[in-house]
Specification:
- This protein has 416 residues and is an alpha+beta fold.
- A hairpin with a 5-residue loop joins strand 10 and strand 11.
- It has a six-stranded antiparallel barrel with strand order 1-2-3-6-5-4. It has a six-stranded antiparallel β-barrel with strand order 7-8-9-12-11-10. Strands 14, 15, 16, 17, 18 and 19 form a six-stranded antiparallel β-sheet that branches.
- The two termini are 57 Å apart.
- It is globular, with a radius of gyration of 31 Å.
- Helix 1 runs antiparallel to helix 2.
- The protein is built from eleven helices and 20 strands.
């Protein structure tokens, strides 16, 4: 904007310094400056329009996209039978007390026992396969449910059965009858191609209000909110509230690039910080749940920790990239391949490794039984070992049976 006004200031100064008898010369000078002014104006405005086109501003409306995608987004309703203790608030009297018979007259309310009641909860989900009737949602939406129902935009309600669930990524897959309703599915997108600043749209069931559309941008990627060993969340400022859990996060092509899962809030409502499981992680988990009814993750068989500056200096490393092997359980894949405690894993299957959660994801996403090369730092030099991966779920089951005091989540956090 300063450049646009510079010719005017220069023109004023010229007129003040020009004598009266030089009027014709002053007019000629002004005439010469006019084309320059318009040329600069056109150049700057042209640059602004070019910048706006490259920036790909917000859509004029999200209405067409919302109308197209909403039929595939569903509400998830669950019912759980909860047992509660009854009679605990009534006073207890010794035998023969005058008030003992008084409380017995109220149907034995003075006696302790269990009472059953139904607890309901609501969430969101989306149809990923219309032919098979497959619906994706969050694990915490249906966890512990005795009955699960899927409610569509038009109000139709169908019973659902659980296909499989993965608490580590908070993903669950449901199945409904595709014969009872003409279903519409939405496709997966590639979250790895999404960029910070891209526009996104969320559809869900906040506070049980039904189909609600919100929009925003991707605020950050690769967020670790310490909810599990494979955290790699997309952060968005699209409004996500209670009840949105399990709903889809769409890109502007109408593809699912995330599953809305969590929010950061001190009040319980949206403050513009929401988190979604990226499709790059979710798609593989969903495929395994559909095929096997559970996940089948690769298992390296190492106890790992991040490399600190002190450790890097002591090991002769130039930086803190890599993961230190703190322990190698016997009979595991790493032990059989010759990996030892004190080694630093620099690369796994051709991918550089910088921290523990990155290695955990890489191993988990590699097929069971695959033979992979692991580059190590040992005694001041690089070496390569070939490892045939095992199955994490089998290893956890075996460890839990030999050591019942160790639960599965704690094992998965340290076992690569």
């Amino acid at each position: 904007m300063t450049t646009l006004y510079t010719p005017n200031r220069m023109s004023s100064e010229t007129r003040r310094e020009t004598p009266v008898m030089g009027t014709e010369r002053s007019k000629a000078a002004s005439a010469n400056k006019a084309p320059l002014f318009f040329a600069v104006t056109i150049l700057v405005l042209g640059s602004l329009f070019a910048f706006n086109a490259a920036a790909r501003g917000a859509p004029d409306s999200f209405a067409d996209l919302a109308e197209e995608l909403s039929p595939a987004v569903v509400n998830i309703s669950t019912t759980q039978i909860v047992k509660t203790e009854r009679g605990g608030n009534f006073p207890q009297f010794p035998p023969g007390h005058p008030f003992e018979d008084f409380f017995k007259d109220f149907g034995g309310k003075g006696k302790k026992g269990e009472r059953e009641r139904k607890a309901t909860s609501l969430g969101s989900g989306f149809v990923i396969d219309a032919d098979k009737g497959l619906v994706v949602t969050n694990n915490h939406v249906i966890d512990g449910a005795d009955e699960i129902s899927v409610i569509f935009q038009d109000g139709e309600k169908l019973d659902a059965e659980l296909v499989g669930t993965d608490p580590k990524t908070d993903i669950a897959v449901l199945k409904i009858s595709s014969k009872e309703k003409d279903l519409k599915a939405v496709p997966w997108g590639n979250s790895d191609k999404s960029r910070v600043g891209d526009w996104v749209m969320a559809i869900g069931n906040p506070f049980g209000l039904g189909g609600t559309v919100t929009a925003g941008i991707i605020s950050a990627r690769g967020r670790d909110i310490r909810s599990g060993p494979y955290d790699d969340y997309i952060q968005t400022d699209a409004s996500i509230n209670k009840g949105n859990s399990g709903g889809p996060l769409f890109n502007m092509k109408g593809e699912v690039i995330g599953i809305n899962t969590a929010i950061f809030s001190q009040s319980g409502g949206s403050i513009g910080i929401g988190f979604a499981v990226p499709s790059a992680l979710a798609k593989n988990v969903v495929n395994q749940l559909v095929e096997f009814g559970q996940t089948r993750r690769g298992w390296l068989g190492v106890v790992i920790q991040n490399v600190t500056e002190e450790l890097a200096e002591g090991l002769g490393l130039d930086n803190t990239d890599g993961v230190l092997v703190a322990g190698v359980p016997e009979d595991g894949p790493a032990f059989k391949s010759g990996i030892k405690a004190g080694d630093v894993i620099l690369e796994f299957n051709g991918e550089e490794v910088s921290e523990t959660r990155e290695l955990s994801r890489l191993v988990a996403e590699t097929s069971v039984g695959s033979e992979v090369e692991v580059e190590l730092w040992r005694n001041g030099k690089k070496i390569v070992k070939t490892v045939k991966l095992g199955e994490l779920e089998k290893a956890e089951t075996q460890l839990a049976s030999t050591n019942p005091s160790v639960d599965k989540p704690s094992v998965s956090e340290v076992m690569g």
